[in-house]
């Protein structure tokens, strides 16, 4: 019997979605508690990342009880700093009052992380950036982004913060847009409680090799979280892991294993038209196969192939592992 790593999911995997076409939503809205119940139904999850604030009327005690009832733990909270009031940014909003209101949401999330015993506050400043040439003064943008994140981290020295980078969407250019740029920004903060959450799909669609980006972040001591999904590389499609990029997904997890990275394997997916519990189950079925394939990889032969940059030998070894791993159910 294989012992698998702990699996987790962003609670938004179980929410209902709106986009710019189905402005009436793809399903009826679900409360934070409904989403936790669905996450529990998957039966394979140990952790969830929860949006903050919770849906109206849901208290911290409600969330704590719902998590306990489903046998789930909160890995982190994601403050909603990218909604309408912060459409021009959270940290980099030109209006100081908007920056303050975003900060208040993040301070609230920090308190909730303490109360729930979670590992981090996850910062996804989706509206921080710009859309048009000449729209933003880049020096101001980076000053506000870096100083704001530093102030937040220094106000909560007992907590960890992770920045999830992404190249674009909703802005055409997000400030925290790549692994390298995020490392440089964190170095300029000069704090030790800010790291990175690497989203496999964001790296893919940003033109990165997710495995290489993982190594870069690990080399800088900054890979504190990750989530997986899949996309066609032209957009953050947030499809099921294993639907497209099998080899790159295996390479990503191989890099984590080589470095002794032990963390939660998290899902960040948006099943607009798929049933969310089944979507998560099928994703974890694939991740388990990936995990078994890692056990089957002929590491010494792979190292020898890589020492010669012998792509054919390396891919033969990878194919052997991937297609021998098989499925459990
Ligand atoms: Fe993500
Ligand atoms: Fe994403």
Description:
With 329 residues, this protein is of the alpha/beta class. The protein has one domain (7-275): Divalent-metal-dependent TIM barrel enzymes (TIM Barrel, Alpha-Beta Barrel), CATH 3.20.20.150. 44% of the residues lie in helices and 13% in strands. The chain has eleven helices and ten strands. The chain has helices at 32-42, 60-70, 96-116, 138-155, 179-189, 200-205, 210-219, 246-258, 276-296, 299-307, 311-325; strands spanning 7-10, 47-52, 73-79, 120-123, 129-130, 161-164, 173-174, 194-199, 223-228, 265-267. It has an eight-stranded parallel beta barrel, surrounded by six helices. Strands 5-7 form a two-stranded antiparallel ribbon. Bound molecules: fe (iii) ion (2 copies). One fe (iii) ion binds next to helix 6. One fe (iii) ion binds next to loops.
Task: Describe how the helices and strands are arranged.
Blueprint: E1 7-10, H1 32-42, E2 47-52, H2 60-70, E3 73-79, H3 96-116, E4 120-123, E5 129-130, H4 138-155, E6 161-164, E7 173-174, H5 179-189, E8 194-199, H6 200-205, H7 210-219, E9 223-228, H8 246-258, E10 265-267, H9 276-296, H10 299-307, H11 311-325
Parallel strand pairs: 1-2, 1-10, 2-3, 3-4, 4-6, 6-8, 8-9, 9-10
Antiparallel strand pairs: 5-7
The protein binds fe (iii) ion (2 copies).
One fe (iii) ion (FE) binds next to loops.
């Amino acid at each position: 019997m294989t012992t698998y790593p702990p699996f987790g999911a962003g609670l938004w995997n179980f929410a209902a979605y709106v986009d710019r076409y189905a402005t009436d939503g793809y399903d009826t809205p679900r409360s934070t508690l409904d989403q936790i119940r669905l996450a529990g139904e998957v039966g394979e999850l140990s952790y969830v990342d929860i949006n903050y604030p919770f849906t109206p009327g849901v208290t911290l005690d409600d969330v704590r009880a719902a998590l306990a009832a489903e046998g789930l733990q909160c890995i982190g909270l994601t403050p909603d700093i990218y909604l309408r009031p912060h459409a021009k940014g959270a940290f980099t909003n030109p209006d100081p009052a908007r920056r303050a209101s975003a900060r208040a949401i993040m301070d609230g999330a920090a308190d909730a992380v303490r109360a729930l015993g979670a590992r981090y506050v996850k910062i996804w400043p989706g509206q921080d950036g710009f859309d048009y040439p000449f729209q933003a003064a880049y020096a101001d943008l980076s000053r506000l982004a870096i100083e704001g994140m530093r102030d937040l981290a220094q106000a909560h020295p007992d907590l960890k913060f992770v920045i999830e980078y992404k190249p674009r969407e909703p802005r055409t250019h997000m400030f925290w847009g790549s692994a390298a740029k995020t490392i440089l920004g964190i170095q300029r903060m000069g704090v030790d409680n800010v790291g990175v959450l690497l989203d496999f799909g964001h790296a893919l669609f940003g033109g990165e090799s997710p495995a290489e980006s993982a190594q870069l972040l690990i080399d800088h001591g900054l890979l504190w979280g990750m989530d997986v999904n899949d996309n066609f590389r032209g957009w953050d499609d947030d499809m099921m892991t294993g639907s497209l990029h099998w080899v790159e997904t295996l390479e990503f997890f191989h890099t984590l294993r080589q470095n002794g990275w032990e963390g939660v394997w998290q899902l960040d997916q948006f099943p607009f038209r798929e049933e969310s519990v089944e979507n998560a189950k099928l994703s974890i079925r694939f991740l388990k196969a990936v995990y078994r394939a890692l056990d089957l990889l002929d590491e010494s032969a792979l190292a020898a192939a890589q020492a010669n940059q012998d792509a054919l030998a390396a891919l033969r070894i990878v194919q052997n592992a991937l297609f021998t791993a098989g499925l459990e159910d």
